[in-house]
Specification:
The chain is of the alpha/beta class. It is about 50% helix and about 15% strand. Strand 4 (about 105-110), helix 7 (about 120-130) and strand 5 (about 135-140) form a beta-alpha-beta unit.
């Protein structure tokens, strides 16, 4: 059975980002070779952030679409209130919360500043456990099979 994987906006953005060629290469190859190992999810938040890019990727990968719910908004606010995600980055908190409330235990991101970083991951999972949500594994595409194509 395939595992579910939520991809935040940074993943489809990297697909076409010429300014970071290694990240672009890993992302493109991952979508070609590894994405079929997962049931992929994106959110309506992702759609609004990169609509043109995500439409092409979604058509070609069959990403399932998740909506922003009141429950996700509440949880994202907890992430911000308790210091897991900075107040100026509410979209980052919302991506994690959308995955969490939909019981998606894996999240891929290229955002090493606010999402794929030890302290945010630790704090997010402390908040999740305290509020009866599951532990979520957060990492770059490299940990989901993309390391075959290079490392950042």
């Amino acid at each position: 059975m395939k595992e579910s994987l939520y991809i935040d906006t940074s993943i489809p953005s990297a697909f076409f980002d010429l300014s970071k060629p290694m990240r672009q290469l890993i992302t493109q190859r991952w979508f070609e070779d590894k994405s079929q190992n997962f049931v992929l999810y994106i959110s309506t938040l992702t759609m609004t952030e990169v609509e043109d890019t995500i439409n092409e990727i979604r058509r070609n990968t069959g990403c399932k679409l998740l909506k922003i719910t009141d429950e996700a908004i509440h949880l994202s606010n907890l992430y911000i209130e308790h210091g897991a995600i900075p107040p100026g980055e509410p979209e980052d908190a919302l991506h994690i919360a959308i995955a969490t409330v939909n019981n998606i235990f894996l999240l891929a991101s290229w955002n090493f500043k606010h999402i794929v970083s030890v302290n945010p991951i630790r704090k997010v999972n402390e908040i999740n456990i305290k509020n009866n949500y599951p532990y979520i594994q957060i990492g770059s595409l490299e940990i989901y099979g993309g390391s075959e194509y290079g490392n950042l």
